[in-house]
Design goal:
The structure holds two protein chains of two kinds. Chain A has four helices and no strands. Chain B is mostly helical. Chain B starts with 7 loop residues before the first helix and ends in a 9-residue tail after the last helix. Classes of the chains: A mainly alpha, B mainly alpha. The interface between A and B is medium-sized, with 28 and 39 residues.
């Protein structure tokens, strides 16, 4: 734009900056009285979901029942899993070379994991 | 104006943890003036609309208080919500109110341009200048007006204004620069004589 050709630094303060600053200063010093504004805002706030007083003990009781059920059912279920695992292994006899291979793999994995865990950072 | 004996952060914590309405009410009391003043600037002096938007701002602040991470001042966070409310409202209203306001200002002016006002008394001179500034601000684009309001009226840094306007710092600087160029053109009659 030609009217700005003479301006060397467009961000440098000028008469308009002074005008805007004066206007802003005037507005800042003029405190807007509340006049019920806060009350209107507080009235318009959405109500928090009110939880009934019995909710907490009811949840505790339900969790207790669930925990007791798990505690009673788990030993039987765990035994069933072990029994099924043994039955599967027994049905598929493992060869000596297969066992050696599995042991080698396990050893290599353990050694790698130990080497990784004990590595020193430079 | 209420004295800030308790910090904003303490009041926010009380409002969050204890669901303390009184703490939030104190926050509203502390910041209502600046938020309403900012919105009055953004809405080109439409006080009723500004107050509606300010109310919406504080309701949104209450709803989203948990998401306030203290990465900025609480007032800056409020300016951000207020600016978003204003932009959303503008999109909804499609500038109808701005046109109405321009008409109202034109009626108030009663045919006195800056040249006419310049020869009157100091109070009239100042009022006319203020009115012209308001009109010139209203003619800016949303981004330019918001950037100038945040940087000058709210005295924010470019970085803080970028946070409020949710845009890069470079965009804020461009908006300010372009806005000022337009304001200079619109207020050319008020410019001091070049020596």
């Amino acid at each position: 734009m030609t009217h700005d050709a003479h301006i060397s630094d467009p961000m440098a303060p000028d008469w308009l900056d002074g005008l805007l600053a004066a206007d802003a200063g005037e507005a800042r010093s003029a405190y807007i009285a509340d006049e019920g504004f806060t009350a209107r805002v507080m009235h318009a706030l959405p109500a928090r979901m009110a939880l009934p007083a019995w909710r907490r003990p009811a949840v505790m009781v339900l969790w207790g029942i669930a925990a007791a059920g798990i505690a009673l059912a788990l030993p039987g279920a765990a035994l069933d899993v072990v029994r099924e695992g043994y039955r599967l292994l027994a049905a598929h006899p493992v060869s000596l070379s297969g066992m050696a291979g599995a042991l080698l793999c396990a050893g290599a994995l353990t050694w790698s994991a130990a080497a990784y865990a004990l590595r020193t950072s430079d | 104006m209420p004295s800030p004996e308790v910090s904003d952060a303490q009041l926010i914590a009380r409002a969050l943890v204890g669901d303390d309405h009184h703490a939030f009410a104190e926050l509203v009391r502390r910041h209502q003036s600046t938020v309403r003043a900012t919105l009055r600037k953004l809405t080109a002096g439409n006080h009723a609309l500004a107050d509606d938007l300010a109310q919406e701002t504080f309701v949104l602040a209450w709803r989203n208080l948990k998401s306030f991470r203290q990465e900025a001042r609480f007032s800056t966070w409020l300016y951000r919500i207020a600016t978003n409310c204003w932009l959303a409202d503008k999109r909804k209203r499609k500038e109808e109110l701005l046109g109405d306001r321009d008409d109202a200002i034109a009626e108030d002016e009663d045919g006195n341009g800056p040249e006419g006002a310049a020869v009157q008394g100091d109070a009239t001179h100042s009022a006319s200048l203020k009115l012209d500034l308001e009109r010139a601000m209203a003619a800016l684009s949303d981004g330019e007006r918001a950037a100038i309001v945040q940087c000058y009226h709210n005295d924010l840094t470019h970085e803080e204004a970028a946070y409020v306007l949710d845009c890069p710092v470079g965009t804020v600087k461009t908006h300010v620069l372009r806005g000022k160029q337009k304001l200079k053109l619109a207020l050319a009659a008020w410019a001091p004589e070049a020596t």
